[in-house]
Amino acid sequence: MSTTAWSLPETDIFDTIRTALDDGSPAVLATVTAVEGSAYRRPGAKMLIRPDEDDVGSVTAGCLEDEVRDVAMDALEDGEPRIETWDLTGDDEVWGYGVGCNGVITVFVEPLDESYRPVLDARRAGNPVGVVTVVESETAAAFGSRARFESGQWVDSAGIPDDVLDELAPATTELVERGKAETIPVETAEGDLSVFVDGIRPSTELVIFGSGVDVTPVVELAKLVDFRVTVVSFRGGQADTERFPRADEVLSTSPRDVADLRAWDEDTLAVVMSHNFLDDRLTLERLLETPVEYIGLMGPHERFGEMLEAFAEEDRVLTDDERARIYTPIGLSLGGDSPYQIAYSIVAELLAVAHDREPQHLSRRAGPIHERVELDSDS
Amino acid sequence: MSTTAWSLPETDIFDTIRTALDDGSPAVLATVTAVEGSAYRRPGAKMLIRPDEDDVGSVTAGCLEDEVRDVAMDALEDGEPRIETWDLTGDDEVWGYGVGCNGVITVFVEPLDESYRPVLDARRAGNPVGVVTVVESETAAAFGSRARFESGQWVDSAGIPDDVLDELAPATTELVERGKAETIPVETAEGDLSVFVDGIRPSTELVIFGSGVDVTPVVELAKLVDFRVTVVSFRGGQADTERFPRADEVLSTSPRDVADLRAWDEDTLAVVMSHNFLDDRLTLERLLETPVEYIGLMGPHERFGEMLEAFAEEDRVLTDDERARIYTPIGLSLGGDSPYQIAYSIVAELLAVAHDREPQHLSRRAGPIHERVELDSDS
Lengths: 379, 379
Fold this sequence. Notes:
The structure is a homodimer. Chain A has helices at 3-6, 10-23, 65-78, 92-95, 117-124, 162-178, 215-224, 277-287, 301-313, 320-325, 339-354, and strands spanning 28-36, 46-49, 56-57, 82-87, 104-111, 129-137, 146-150, 153-155, 181-188, 191-200, 205-209, 228-233, 249-252, 269-272, 294-297, 326-327. By secondary structure, chain A is of the alpha/beta class. The first copy, chain A, has a six-stranded parallel beta sheet with strand order 13-12-11-14-15-16, with helices on both faces. In chain A, α7 crosses α11. Chain A is elongated and about 70 Å long. Chains A, B: This is XdhC family protein. Chains A, B: Residues 206-350 form the XdhC Rossmann domain.
């Protein structure tokens, strides 16, 4: 088990799945469908297993990966998907090799084939997608039957009856919206089913305005936590992709054209760190014309004050709503002033905003670490 | 200018200085001594310049590094230190290549020689040190005269009069304590001086208990933000350094011997993530016997609740003070549940605790980003 491959961001796992499909090489996908108790990974966590390669991704903190690999090899042999549950409750003595586990973990294991490619394509195109799989069935809907939920519509759903899909639609909508996964029981006249609903979202888009050396550590950290990163330079000469090899995209434009640079939506995060006062001010002005709700601006309070004065000289007064979209000084208050420490504080803020979290110590916060998935459809 | 070398953690910069001294290869050290206005780096920021190598470290966000290199080459030629001030106020049009700068930045530039080695040795040995340099003088104390302040004592201070050192002692004590740097004016009967006081601290010590794959991303991120990282395994077989190549130290012990593992002080941060309930509980118990003030424990609230019950069964009830030292669930609330996202949240908490910061958006916080260095001796 390679620790580097084990901790790969979700985007890299999906990219590896695509490569396996492209190459036509045998591969098995394992997905956590349910956990009880204290588990490291959540439902939806994925691992790709190939006969002669390191496993990619993870389903636990390292304690079940070998067992899952064994199951995957069986699945590869007979070509059939399967589901396995490991009950590690109170198993510390047995599993206690310093990487002990707790909880009950259920994993769906499936030989990969081309039917999974549309999921990869949807995610790459920036579209959320729900992948729905029958994992227990007393009905004619066979174990492993699958449907996709895209743009509010069921697609490729031949194996699952319409009434089941109808009942799953509200929960699936919500799970896809939140990028969460859960196993849902469905009662039908014919009998009961359990359906695993995997809400898969594209990475959150991050657009960084600036091409200085200090952009590099921000890109590096942002990629590790799986943002999709676009770097925008205002000087074409500096915009070559080689300077930001880890960025997904490197663009060049003029600050005046920022609003037209791309499709902007409210979930896209913008970081303004050109260090150039004029460029930053124009970028800020243009970004305020877009639906972007997070605009992080590097520099001290005083610099933003000067920017507001410059706006005022052009009779432009920011509304309270506009002010609330601007985060300056950028970043969380974590202290430290080295390049990586500054970048760390910025990306910590991006994570908190992307996940709609109030940054605070988890230990000082009420409630569970992971938001409980409480579906409206439960009520 | 290599962006990787530009953003190197301080420890790596000091290590590169040591290598240059060991090799006897020509090298120049540049240190920011003062900034006014909006500057990316703070006083004390360092860059090492060598004739045929990439510069290491940084003094600005990339806009002055080339100029500083030129000055360094001059210093290498005549063997003399110098100080230069760049006034970039309102210079956006000139410096505005997408990496514009603001503010007034003063940099002390000195050819490196063996006299700097004790600074490296002190830091490596875990001892804070003050490096005091005359950067302006109307007196007999020559420009570039230097003294060190170690364990409350002046060392190698031949070039600076005792009365000046006496006056500098309180401010130096405080700057060393806080790891900050500042240029301080001193008035003497003979005339005025400016003295740059560089408070250099060793990296904060981080000790991680656990040897699972999920430890690796925590080590990686912690090293980027310059913690000194020790990984402690409870199973000798897993403790080989190869598994954690980025850790400074990999140790193996029994949970019962944790308190005697090393010298513990209140500034050392401990992270408990063996995943093994028994090992975690014993480690926690032993750590509470040490002065360590931050003990981060991985796992949900419920798991800690079970641990408290296990303590209670042995008639061990934690005091409020003990409870306050335990951070569980570990990490800041940033959302996300991939291995790097979990590690990111942990290291964000470590940074905030190490710097005594309340984690919150800098934009929502009153006051400057960097704590103003207000010396008691000013009053």
